[in-house]
Amino acid sequence: MMDWAYLFEISLTGLASGGLYALAALAFVMVYKATRVVNIAIGEILMVGAYLFFTFSASLALPLWLAIPAAVLCCGLLGAVIERTIIRPLLGEPPISVFMVTVGLASVLVGLVEMIWTADQRRLPDFMPTQPIMIGEAFLAPKIFWGAVIAVVFIAAVLLVLRFWRGGVALRATASDQAAAYSMGINVPRVFSLAWVVSAMIAAVSGIIVGSIGGISSSMGVFGLSVLVVVIVGGLDSVLGALLGGLFIGLIEALAGAYLGGEYKLLSTFIMLVIVLMIRPYGLFGTREIERL
Amino acid sequence: MRIGTLKQSYVADAALFDSRTQKVWLAVAGALLLLFPFMASDYWLYLACLVSINVASATGLNILTGYTGLVSLGQAAFMGLGAYTVAILETRLGTPFLLNLLAGGIVAMLGGLVVGIPSLRVKGLYLAIATIAASFIAHFLFANLAFTDGTTGISMPPAKFFGVPLDTSFRLYWVIVPITLLLLLGAANLFRTRIGRAFIAIRDRDISAEVLGIPLLRYKLLSFGLSSFYAGVAGGLWAYFFRVVTPESFPLLMSIFFLAAIIVGGMGSILGGILGAAFMTMVPELLKLVVDLLPGGSELTVFLSPVRTIVFGLLIIGFLVFEPLGLAEVWRRIRRFFHLWPFRN
């Protein structure tokens, strides 16, 4: 006997946490589209953002309206530093080298976090309303609901900025044709930096939300693995793919977790990944690369 | 001293050991390997065995990633397949040691062939992430299948080799090191054959290779299979060395470790695999030594694990940015210096 109300509730929770995946996936796609770098350290950058917020709000006791922007800005700075010191020198190297550099970066960030804040699990201060949310008959955990709301608002804001702001236009121009963007007077290296900064800032926001839902620890980077699956399923270079992929993977994970058990969560997402790769090698919405000799 | 090399035939050019100097040095190295267990302490023997196992696995990954250009983050999963096969055969059936290792290699090879199937359709990063999927699925299977004893894993008795229990590092050394040497010799010879050259052609440009008449799917699968065979044998040795196999023994981090080892050592070079695996295995031990030497070392041990993680990452980044050809290139440069001395460069 199928319990439809339960299924509905699970699906809602899944879609809501999918919103968080979508936000982190957006950070990933931003860097990939502009610079063709697969940033496997996305989960770790997100973790650093959450820890910075933890420091500003809990240790330094800054008010929230100051702590959140401060954490996001610091994370943006980190993005700029990463781009200048380790990504820029590898410009023009094979994509695999750059990919491996981000693997190294992930390791460095985890080590730094463990060194500065120790590996213990921490709690972020609560800043979201704790009133339970009822949608029809279905109950939704307030943190997940408000997390999803913030994520959706933020995604919309980022998309609007990309659409109308000069820097956003430059970013999209660079993404679609680097050489043409260069010849139209766009400072492409600066756009690369910009992409990393914006991506790290988005990652920080999603880190703060994810951290306030589930607590923060030095193994938070695992979240990045699910994000990686999301963007591969959606297509590495597609913003739409990142958003829909996020919702899709969130849903699959929630259903697998509820009906099969917690240990099936990652398994089901990865099986989904393999299936999608077999059917559409460039993801559901990714651009098909045409190779010539 | 060797001043230059003159080769007058293709056979001489493709020879495995090409000059007398090289043969002499190899003989010296062989003698050192023979003498080492009698001179070294237990700790160093333990390290030597570990390095040797890692060299075997890294060489396997080098065949796949360094020579064929297919990036894999699943090497640890294949080692796990080999280790579990060996552990199950040893504890349930009690088949002989060498047979178990062979079986471990073959089972891992079959796993590699399955994981390799998508390699024709997806490549580069998509493939790397598909192999991450493989390692998660493997981990899940190890933890949940009926005959793998779940999360507790399998403990096994020491291996028996003609009635002698291999229960000390000293005894294991005489098995592990020769097997690794055999695998290395096999890999070095592979790239003198048609198959090895096909691998290199695929790495350099797979579409060109196909145009030249190399069946891509067959050779990519073969590369996956061979590489996993190496991983499986290494995993089997690993199982005999640590004598307990759990699902947590082969995490994704271990796959990253092997990829890092061949980057640091030098992709597409047998020597690189050896140097890289040895170097990456020794670095944590070196760090431990340094921490012990520092004043107030006992308080600093808290930082040992994070520092290790940071150094691990910095090594990957540093080598990719400053020395993309790895330690093998450094070694080549040193050799060149001595060849040309007293002239410059």
TrEMBL record, chain A:
Q: Report the membrane topology from the UniProt record.
A: Multi-pass membrane protein
In terms of InterPro entries, this protein maps to: ABC_transp_permease, BCAA_transport_permease
Subcellular location field: Cell membrane
Q: Which domain of life is it from?
A: Bacteria
Cellular component GO terms, alphabetical: plasma membrane
UniProt keyword annotations, A-Z: Amino-acid transport, Cell membrane, Membrane, Transmembrane, Transmembrane helix, Transport
- Any transmembrane segments, and where? 6-30, 37-56, 62-82, 94-117, 144-165, 191-210, 216-233, 240-260, 266-285
What does the record list as GO biological process?
A: amino acid transport
Q: Does the keyword Membrane apply?
A: yes
Q: Does the keyword Lyase apply?
A: no
Where does this chain mainly localize? membrane
Single GO MF descriptor: transmembrane transporter activity
Tell me the protein family, please: Belongs to the binding-protein-dependent transport system permease family. LivHM subfamily.
Name of the featured protein:
Branched-chain amino acid ABC transporter permease
| Taxonomic source organism | Comamonas antarctica
Automatic annotation (TrEMBL), chain B:
Indicate whether Acyltransferase appears among the record's keywords. no
Q: Which GO terms describe its cellular component?
A: plasma membrane
Q: Which UniProt keywords apply?
A: Cell membrane, Membrane, Transmembrane, Transmembrane helix
Membrane-spanning residues:
21-38, 70-89, 95-117, 124-147, 172-191, 221-241, 253-279, 310-331
Kindly report the protein's main subcellular placement as a broad class.
membrane
Molecular function GO terms recorded: branched-chain amino acid transmembrane transporter activity
Membrane topology (UniProt): Multi-pass membrane protein
Compartments in which it is found: Cell membrane
Protein biosynthesis listed as a keyword: no
Q: Name one Pfam family in it.
A: BPD_transp_2
Record-linked PANTHER family: ABC TRANSPORTER PERMEASE PROTEIN, HIGH-AFFINITY BRANCHED-CHAIN AMINO ACID TRANSPORT SYSTEM PERMEASE
Please identify the protein, giving its name as recorded.
Branched-chain amino acid ABC transporter permease
